[in-house]
Amino acid sequence: MTNIILFGPPGAGKGTQANFLKEKYNLVHISTGDVFRYNIKNKTELGDLAKSFMSKGKLVPDEITIDMLSNEVDKNCGSNGFIFDGFPRTEAQAEALGHLMDDKDSQINAMVALEVDDEVLVQRLLERGKTSGRVDDADESIIRNRIKVYYNETAILKDYYEKRGMYYGVNGEGSIEEITERLSKVIDTL
C-alpha cells in the first residue's frame, strides 16, 4: 500500500492533484472535509456528534475525526492505498493517524507538500472564488488570513515529518500537468 498525506496551503491545488493521482496510482482520496460533509448529511452517529461541536463553533475532537477516517479506510480496505487531504493538521493528529494506519497493518509513506508562493495562492483563490461560490475565496483579506493560519498552525507538521525522513516538498507552480509530473516522480520513489 502507498499512503500519502497531500499537504499545502489553501489554493495550492491539493484537490486538483489528488484527482489525477488517485486515477494514476489507483489510490483512494480521503478529503476530511468531504468525510465530514458525508457523515453530517447522512446523519451518521459520528456526523451528529461532529455537528454538535460545529454548531457551537467548536473544533471537532480528534477522536471523532479519526473514527470517521477509520471508517473510510475500512470501506476501502482492498485499495492500493490512500491520499489523505486535510488531515492531519497537528502533531497529535499526525500521531493518531500513524496509530490508525498501524492498526490497519499499514503506515503513512510520505507527506508530499505543494509549495506555492503566497501571491500565487491569493490569485488562485480569488480566481476560484469567481466560480466556486465560496465566500472565503472571494475576499482577499480572508484569503490572506487563511494562509497565515496555515503557516502558524499547520505548517509545523513539515518538521514532524521531516524528522522522520517522510517529507517531500514539491514545486506547486506551473501547469497542472507539470505539477502532476513532479508529484509522480516523488510517489514513484516511495
Please tell me about this protein's structure.
There is one protein chain. The protein is of the alpha/beta class. The protein has one domain (2-187): P-loop containing nucleotide triphosphate hydrolases (Rossmann fold, 3-Layer(aba) Sandwich). The chain is built from nine helices and five strands; from the N terminus they run βαβαααβαβαααβα. The protein has helices spanning 14-25, 32-41, 45-54, 62-75, 91-103, 118-132, 140-154, 157-163, 176-187, and strands spanning 2-7, 28-31, 81-85, 110-115, 167-171. Strands 2-3-1-4-5 form a five-stranded parallel sheet, with helices on both faces. Helix 2 packs across helix 3, helix 2 (32-41) crosses helix 4 and helix 4 (62-75) runs parallel beside helix 5 (91-103). The termini are close together. The mean pLDDT is 94.
Task: List the main descriptive attributes of the protein structure presented here.
190 residues, five-stranded parallel β-sheet, 9 helices, Rossmann fold, globular, alpha/beta, single chain
Strand order of the largest sheet: 2-3-1-4-5
Annotated CATH topology: Rossmann fold
Structural domain tally: 1
CA radius of gyration is 16 Å
Mean pLDDT value: 94
Low-confidence stretches: none
Q: Give me the number of helical elements.
A: 9
Helix content: 55-70%
- Looking at the overall shape, the CATH architecture is 3-Layer(aba) Sandwich
Just give the CATH class. Alpha Beta
Sketch the topology as an H/E string, one letter per element: EHEHHHEHEHHHEH
Rough outline: globular
Subunit structure: Monomer.
GO molecular function: AMP kinase activity; ATP binding
Keywords: ATP-binding, Cytoplasm, Kinase, Nucleotide biosynthesis, Nucleotide-binding, Transferase
Subcellular location: Cytoplasm
